Structure prediction request, 208 residues.
Amino acid sequence: MPWDRNQMAERAAQELEDGMYVNLGIGIPTLVANYTGDKDITLQSENGMLGMGPFPVEGDEDADVINAGKQTITELNRTAYFDSATSFGMIRGGKIAAAILGAMEVSENGDLANWMIPGKLVKGMGGAMDLVAGVGRVIVITDHNSKSGAAKLLKECTLPLTGKAVVDRIITNLGVFDVVEGGLRIVELAPDVTEAELREKTEATLVA
Prediction:
């Protein structure tokens, strides 16, 4: 059966290695903080926090400790706080090893659209454009299809782009994919998901 949001986040956490500095985007990526386990991972939030902990248990929330998505989170004994200029200096300076971001659309050559839908009110791009340009590796977590059933892994994005050819790996509720020459390579399927089902729900070219 397809992975749920938490299982997608747990799978994304498997991509991280000891010593990495990692930025988590808003949405499903924020859940990755709950699944880093014993790994020595330092999570960064572009609103000015280095060393994010997991989400707090109910009753222990601190409204002053939030991530970029304005969700309450916890701090660690090594957490540091700073202004946005310093935060983006880290990102633009290549200090962040990976970013885990959400997406509205991803093309088969790694183009990413994750910040606006024309005609709809949005809060703004945030740090997404800087992240895809400045980090070492971009991992996307997204549902494989929209609520209407439309494919989100496309031959070409139809929405305004965040970055061109910037995505390295995609994790959806149906599986894991790498952006390679000629399309997307299937790395892993979610339990009980068949390749035939995957191909039916994917517009992008799937390659061996």
